[in-house]
Amino acid sequence: MKKIIGIIMSVLLLMTGCSSSGSESVKITPSNLIEDNLEKLKPHLSDMITGCVKVDYSGKKKEIGCKYEVWENGKLTKCENIISASINDKFNGEVSVSLRDALNDNMQKSKNMIMTVAVTNGKTVASGMKSIETFDREHSYIINNINNEIKVKDDKEVAILGVTSNGQGKLESSDKIEENAKKAKWGLVVKIYFQYGLN
Question: From which domain of life does this come (predicted)?
Fold first, then answer.
């Protein structure tokens, strides 16, 4: 009888070990790029689009990465990585994004915006910049940031910022960043993901 109980206990321990090894999860919560003690910077950044999230991760992945997608009339037209940073199985920090207008020689807004992404955990771990062609800047747009905590497995990409424009058409917004981009005339989605890294 003791032998059977011992076997059952061993099987239960193995099952518990297996289920916990597959439970690498990511917790993402909304944050602010400009904290209260930096409010004086807001007038200087009034035309800047920003997004920031707190990321708490513990698992087997070695890198955190950030990419962007551009959607036009429901079709994915561009998808590029921006940065990746080594995290060695865990990360507790922030990912911040900003977009600002690129000006031409006449100090007029060009078709491009400069996107900057930073990964920080008290200090900057990695940052990168991209110039992206955007919508007609005379048209209005909506910024979608996450509003609630998100918990997902580390094999999922998570949209953390969206910008959509429907030209002169009606603008609609919801909490679903990627869905909004796919429905819009022009949409930008910024995502974070985790990977094992290069061997």
Answer: Bacteria
Q: Give residue-wise pLDDT tens across range 113-162.
A: 999 999 999 887 899 999 999 887 778 889 999 989 999 999 999 999 99
Give the start-to-end residue ranges of the domains of the chain.
Answer: 24-195
CA angle 37, 50, 105 (to 5 degrees): 110
Listed residue (197, 191, 124, 116) closest to 158, CA to CA:
191
**Which residues pair with residue 152 across a beta bridge?**
26
Torsion of CA 54, 58, 59, 60, to 10 degrees: 80
Q: What share of the chain is helix, strand, coil (3-state, %, to 5)?
A: 20, 50, 30
User: Which pTM was predicted?
Assistant: 0.80
